[in-house]
Known about the structure:
Number of strands: 10
Strand content: 35-45%
Order of helices and strands: EEEHEEEEEEE
Helix content: under 10%
Radius of gyration: 13 Å
Distance between the termini: 38 Å
Number of helices: 1
Structural class: mainly beta
Amino acid sequence: QVQLVESGGDLVQPGGSLRLSCAASGSIVARNTMGWYRQAPGKQRELVASITSGGSTNYADSVKGRFTISRDNAKSTVYLQMNSLKPEDTAVYYCNAVASRTLVLYSWGQGTQVTVSS
Length: 118
C-alpha cells in the first residue's frame, strides 16, 4: 500500500548533521533514478539530490558539498546524508523515483520534517 516511507528527520542546530532514509517497496530503488525532494512553506517542491541506476549523482547548487545521496539496492533504501545544516534547509523532505525533470513515478509519501534552528 505504502511504497515510499521517509524517516530520520529531526530538530537540529545549525552546523549539525542528519541522515534521512527512504524505504521503498520491491525493486523500486534498484530499477529507477531516485531523488530526494524538499518543500518549505510557501515554496515549490524542489529536487535537491538524485542518483541514477548506474550510480551517477546530481545535487542542487544549494546543497552541493554538504549533502550526499546514496542507495542500498539490497535493502531497497535511499539515504540522504546532510552535513553543515543551515536554517534554510528547513523543509519536509520526500523521496521518489524520478521519471523526468518534472515527473515522478509514485504518489508522494508523508515525508519527514527537518528543522534547523538554534
